[in-house]
Design goal:
single chain; about 300 residues; alpha/beta; Rossmann fold; two-stranded antiparallel ribbon; globular
């Protein structure tokens, strides 16, 4: 991707990011920053006990080692680390030209990266198929946003297959502190829920579920060849068969229901996005929900 193309893309994504920021700032009285800012308190150091200190902060391990009483000191956790996991397997290559699931996924990751970096967060990114296709270490600043977007749009995956279980495991091994983890995928895979649950337990998990109308409303065209991009095989199917059409629709509905149920049980956010819809209002609503939830918390 040429430098001029990246700049054009950045302009488009910044327009979306500004629209989101404007909507959230208006609706949430300027509390948009809480989406990406840390809100917890972390351990800092120990010092000797002073009159008036809360006895609940006494560090009994440190006290037992010396002749004085020590208390723990804490600092407010301001900076948040945001990781984006983007599925770049071949099943993502469904949709109209320029609006395939993978295209929408890249745009969403770009907009979210700009939003997070604008708030001073560190942003990292992992693009995954059934192996690591690209990894960008967390960092701050506009140059880093440019690097993430360049990586997204210059990526040519080496593999066509999917392994979300391995992708989640990769993040579990490299992320050492609680972070926001956004998984952007069509979730056309199996045996990944256990690792997804581990991510939700250790981190603030957001699931963005990509889909295309062809997965929910297959055209009735009779017997047609269908190329499976992941297996690289051509299959002949009867697209007019009510049994087959119901199977396709039911498969997507079951996957969506399972993900929604998972997010409810694991205090995670779920956002479904279809390739033919405007995802900006959906991101605005996601941020609105997260702001409201944090205020209540």
């Amino acid at each position: 991707m040429h430098k001029e193309d990246v700049h054009r893309l950045l302009k488009k994504l910044r327009k979306y990011e500004i629209a989101i920021r404007k909507a959230i700032t208006t609706q949430m009285q300027g509390d948009f920053h809480s989406v990406f800012k840390g809100s917890g308190i972390t351990f800092d150091d120990v010092r000797e006990y002073q009159y008036g200190d809360d006895v609940r902060t006494i560090d009994w391990n440190a006290t037992a080692k010396g002749h004085n009483v020590y208390v723990k000191t804490f600092k407010e956790e301001r900076e948040q680390v945001v990781y984006m996991l983007l599925d770049v397997s071949a099943s993502q290559e469904i949709g109209d030209p320029g609006h395939q699931k993978v295209d929408i996924g890249k745009e969403i990751c770009g907009v979210l990266a700009l939003s997070a970096i604008k708030e001073g967060s560190q942003v990292g990114m992992l693009c995954y198929s059934d192996s690591k296709e690209a990894y960008v270490k967390p960092a701050k600043g506009d140059k880093h946003a440019y690097q993430i977007i360049s990586t997204l749009y210059n990526l040519e995956p080496a593999s066509t297959k999917t392994d979300l279980k391995a992708a989640a495991n990769y993040l579990l091994n490299i992320i050492k502190r609680r972070s926001i983890v956004m998984v952007v995928s069509d979730f056309v895979d199996e045996d990944y829920m256990h690792n997804l649950k581990a991510l939700a337990r250790k981190h603030d998990l957001i699931i963005i579920h990509l889909s295309d109308k062809r997965e929910t409303n297959l055209p009735s065209l009779g017997i047609i060849p269908v190329f499976d991009k992941e297996s690289r095989r051509t299959l002949w199917i009867n697209s007019s068969s009510s049994f087959f059409r119901k199977k396709v629709s039911t498969s997507y509905a079951a996957r969506r229901a399972a993900l929604e149920d998972f997010c409810k049980k694991n205090q995670s956010n779920y956002l479904p996005v279809d390739t033919n819809e405007d995802y900006v209002p959906k991101l605005i609503n996601l941020f609105r929900i997260r702001n409201r939830t944090r205020k209540i918390a």
